[in-house]
Write a structure and sequence with these properties.
about 10% helix; 7 strands; 2 helices; about 90 residues; SH3 type barrels; five-stranded antiparallel beta sheet
């Protein structure tokens, strides 16, 4: 269940192989539900941020008949010092 899964800042790979950078998590001011704030890898140097509910982020999807996590943490991808200073 997504309420039990901790989402860390860093790179994640989506089930379709797209890479995103999770900046942080936050609570929705109206509903109190957890939200993940991220940037698509292609936009890391832009000031555009996106959100996805933690429930959706932590969910599974079916790919070729196999259930897989929607996003998987990528600990081998390192953020540059420039990116860390910026965010």
């Amino acid at each position: 269940m997504s309420h039990d899964r901790r989402v860390y800042s860093g790179f994640y790979k989506r089930y379709d192989a797209d890479i995103i950078y999770v900046v942080t998590t936050a609570k929705d001011g109206d509903t109190g539900k957890a939200t993940v704030i991220y940037k698509p890898n292609s936009l890391l140097h832009d000031n555009k941020f996106f959100t996805i509910s933690k429930d959706s982020f932590c969910s599974n999807v079916v790919v070729d008949g196999i259930e897989v996590p929607k996003y998987q943490r990528q600990t081998q991808i390192k953020a540059s010092s420039e990116l860390i200073r910026k965010y």
